[in-house]
């Protein structure tokens, strides 16, 4: 109702899932004192470094861009040793678990996968999963650009259940 009232309902309906990057209950009115106290736990200069390296995207352009970004080559079927990585936010993955009895499924949220992928067994092949495929596609492309060849996007029907 609010989206309709402020004139963004039509645009909002076209934006794909971003559940891997946005929590279910984001803090929208943070207590400045608590934020400052938490910032004291950061390494000096880390926040400035992150801000300097940040890349901003217009969400209205991501869906079209993701469709034109080539992902890693698709593998028709995952082998018994291949691993499916569910990149959805933890709350979503717990509420709607991905059940693939013939495959090992791991949950590594989208926002952690970039830093944790290097710690995984690189002799294995990984398929990234999210409900609409956009977050898995974007993360797969990011990992491929970093030189990983053992990562693919999960597509319904491509991995036997």
Brief digest:
The protein is α/β, with parallel strands linked by helices. It has helices at residues 2-6, 9-14, 32-39, 46-53, 59-68, 90-95, 110-116, 134-145, and strands spanning 83-86, 104-107, 126-129, 151-153. It is 39% helix and 9% strand.
Your description of this structure?
There is one protein chain. The protein has 161 residues and is of the alpha/beta class. The chain is 39% helix and 9% strand. The protein is built from eight helices and four strands. A four-stranded parallel β-sheet has the order 2-1-3-4, with helices on one face. Strand 1, helix 6 and strand 2 (104-107) form a beta-alpha-beta unit. The radius of gyration is 18 Å and the shape is globular.
Dominant shape? globular
| Rg over C-alpha atoms, rounded to the nearest angstrom | 18 Å
Output the number of helix runs.
Answer: 8
Order of neighbouring strands in the sheet with most strands:
2-1-3-4
Q: Which residues sit in consecutive blocks of at least 5 with pLDDT less than 50?
A: 66-76
Please provide the ordered H/E string of secondary-structure elements: HHHHHEHEHEHE
Q: Which short descriptors sum up this protein?
A:
alpha/beta, 4 strands, globular, 161 residues, 9% strand
Please outline the helices and strands.
Layout: H1 2-6, H2 9-14, H3 32-39, H4 46-53, H5 59-68, E1 83-86, H6 90-95, E2 104-107, H7 110-116, E3 126-129, H8 134-145, E4 151-153
Parallel strand pairs: 1-2, 1-3, 3-4
